[in-house]
Amino acid sequence: MAVNTLFFRKTIMASTGLFLCLFLIVHLSANCILVLPEETARQIYNSYSTTLRESPLIKIVAYLLYASIIFHTIYALLITIRNQKAKPQKYIVNNTKANSTWTSQNMGLIGVVILLFIVIHLANFWARIKLGIGEDVALDSSGHLDVYEVTYSLFQNIYYVLLYSVLMIPLGLHLNHGLKSGFKTLGFYHKKWTRIIARISLVYSALMAIGFGIIPLVVYFK
Amino acid sequence: MEITFKIWRQNSPKTKGKIEAYKVDGITEDMSFLEALDHLNEQLVLKGEKVIAYEYDCREGICGQCGIFINGRAHGPHDHITTCQLHMRSFKDGDTIIVEPWRAASFPVIKDLIVDRSAFDRIIEQGAYISAKTGTAPEANAILIPKEISDKAMNAAACIGCGACVATCKNSSAALFTSAKINHLNNLPQGKAEANNRVLKMTKQMEQEGFGSCTYTGACEVECPENISILNIAEMNARHTKAKLLR
Question: Which domain does B59 fall in, by range?
């Protein structure tokens, strides 16, 4: 298969994107633990994260996840370069509002914002817990790494809380357009089902944006 | 009505173009947009200036020649029409109208508002036809086709190749055009025999012509004079994957 065709590139975009969408469901479910009363949350969250770190299956999933983020980014870049070349001269006036949504016209820009968020997010958690960069993470009373404390203390800083919450808006927009379009890229063309998928995308992206956005606020005000 | 046209003027593919303004009086709201341009051209002839070059043929919305980008939209301010079907009653007295040619690397400007759309012809040449000799028209009921299939094929077949989809697409993707041409035939029994080859060859040509990829903004579907569904693109993707796997 020619790896440079438009179809191949878009298929990579869609499949990595859809995998990331699945991952976010699991991620948000875990985040819900954070809103429980403090000690319960600490216990469940820490033992859950220990289970994840020690599971060989999760290790495979984690590598798939890294690969998905990297490939989604690289292919977005390749596709964008090619698309820019296809329209070298822009219109003096272009009324895109009349025929399409702002999100659909700016997926790349929104993607860059989300990528920046992911970098900050990984630096805050992944680098500290998985790579051991920065301050050592303490153990809780059951001997698990106290990941809850890392999260809790980060979300005592109102600037981080606001940053996390506000950046979930572009995430929601990106997911809404990405999810329903990903299915079209993969060849879902049934009239009724594409409509249903569009509705699912809207509900899914709203749930993700609101869910991820509100939990840091709840933790801050707990 | 008095209208100020700001029109892209470009002498040849190689020269640089620029926007020039023309104040035109005596336009009536019953004029089509093309008639308003004719009116302007008549005045330019009297002044001994070069007329504005633009394409047209049927002037009844079926040939797809009159592709012009008007006030930021392909074929002007309405959904699903051609430029010749746009009338000056859609504008107000004293309006300024920005008139540009289609913009796409694969549609180079020839002169003023005329672009070279032969990239579409080369995609067509790759398989938007049936190679068997069919003779005279067969008896209508000899090949039965379910209504919903024939409707789908007809929706795709309605494409007049105007290029509005490419013009409005931020990536200059020709996916709506190519998918319409593919699905028109691949949905019908007559087109099935060459279905896989058709989708592979036509999409390959589409790519070689330098068109971008589809991001599903949906703009093409809105600007398409024939209201061709964007689901045709998803269907083309499915047919492409199937053809790749079965090759």
Answer: 3-110
Lowest mean pLDDT among A126-130, B104-108, B115-119, B163-167: A126-130
Residue of B nearest to A89 (CA): B103
* Cβ–Cβ contact B37 with A under 8 A: no
Are B54 and B150 members of one domain? no
For residue B233, the domain's CATH number is: 1.10.1060.10
Kindly determine whether residue A98 and residue B73, on different chains, have CB atoms separated by under 8 Å.
Answer: yes
The phi and psi torsions of B62 (rounded to 5 degrees) equal -120, -10
pLDDT digits (tens, 9 = 90+) for B205-244: 999 999 999 999 999 999 999 999 999 999 999 999 999 9
Name the residue type at position A68: S
Query: Of the candidates B51, B85, B110, which is a domain's last residue?
Result: B110
Tell if the CB–CB gap between B213 and A187 is shorter than 8 Å.
no
Domains (range + CATH), chain A? 6-221 (1.20.1300.10)
> Is the domain of B50 the same as that of B93?
yes
Q: Are residues B23 and B123 in the same domain?
A: no
Stretch B55-67: mean pLDDT = 96
Interface check B179 vs A, CB under 8 A: no
User: Which residues 6+ apart lie within 8 Å of A24 measured at CB?
Assistant: A175, A208, A212
Residues B124 and B202 in one domain: yes
B149 touches chain A (CB under 8 A): no
pLDDT at A3 over 70: no
Q: Determine whether the interchain pair A90/B19 forms a contact, defined as Cβ–Cβ distance below 8 Å.
A: no
**Among candidates A133, A171, A174, which has minimal Cα distance to A150?**
A133
Is B94's pLDDT higher than 80?
A: yes
How far does the CA of residue A103 sit from the closest CA of chain B (Å)? 8
Q: What is the DSSP letter of B133?
A: -
CA–CA separation, B217 and A180 (whole Å): 11
Tell me if A91 and B69 make a contact (CB, 8 A cut-off).
yes
- The pTM assigned to this predicted structure is 0.94
Instruction: Name the residue among B77, B213, B231 with its Cβ closest to that of A79.
Output: B213
Last residue of a domain, which of B110, B142, B165? Answer: B110
Do B86 and B205 lie in one domain? The reply is no
Chain A residues lying within 8 Å of B230, measured CB to CB: 184
Q: Are residues B129 and B201 in the same domain?
A: yes
- Own/partner long-range contacts of A140-143 (Cβ < 8 Å, ≥24 apart): A140/A42, A140/A43, A140/A46, A142/A43, A142/A46, A142/A47
Question: What is the total count of domains within chain B?
Answer: 2
